[in-house]
Amino acid sequence: MATPVDAAPLLAVEGLRTSFVDEGVALHAVDGLSFSVGRGETLCIVGESGCGKSVSALSVMRLLPPPPACRVEGSVRLDGREILALSEAEMRSIRGNTISMIFQEPMTSLNPVVTIGYQIAEAVRQHEGRSWAEGYARALEMLRLVRIPEAESRLKQYPHQLSGGMRQRVMIAMALACRPKVLLADEPTTALDVTIQAQILELMRELQEETGTAIVLITHDLGVVAEMARRVVVMYAGRKVEEATVDDLFDRPAHPYTVGLMGSIPQLGSSVEEGAARRRLAEIPGIVPSLRAMPSGCAFAPRCPLATERCRAEMPPLEERRPGHRSACWHWERAAEAIHA
Description:
Largest sheet: 8 strands, mixed
Distance between the termini: 35 Å
Number of helices: 11
Strand content: 15-25%
Oligomer: single chain
Shape: globular
């Protein structure tokens, strides 16, 4: 599904750097991240746990604790407006209104002692100055839009009375209630079974077609990337290591980490075909490095089958390797070989 995309980005992030100060030491959870997304476009940010994806989204939303616990630097422009320079009161006026976020776990994001209807209506009242009656009318409209059955009775229910899939639909309804221009979705289907996951993704696609919302979808699932995105950013250890269109990324990956992620995707039927050699799932050895013990040079070098002394000594720059395809790897031309190592 291709949606027309405006030339000017709705959200432009440049050189985003998020640091947590621990015992006087600055730990860079996000280090120089840049990306943009236009109206009607879906951009996926992919990487394993600990790569800085969620911290990036929370930094954009300015939902991280204030200094000295955390410092966010760089530029985040929302529809041309620099939001890192806004006061907290100004940020509250656009958070949930112009830009919204779907969080990874709805049970920790929804207020457990307040009804679903009240939570959605309150957001509408706060951002649009509507009456409670108008707020509840919008809440009912949104619950129907996300296909929650018996929507009117659900308004009076509490989060614990709904299933996981229903709660996630409520989160989407709340995030879209004020018709935001940009939606950040942090692993919106992680805790759901595959049937509900497919329904949620299809719902997000349909709502995007109706509203033109720009979506930044954070995930570790390359299957979701292939289904949803136009462009994809691959993150590792707080940095962007590759960016390309989805087709180019899957056809010609230019970073060994991306190849490793692809190698871990199960192939349907690969273990049951008679007479066919069973393909073992590839794994990336080791773990994402600790912020306190980042290696010199390329952060992926300790886990990379292509790593050389240069990789361990020098940080590779993020450069355009092919038109529209950027990668941070000294051996990017050999990246496709990494999965066979």
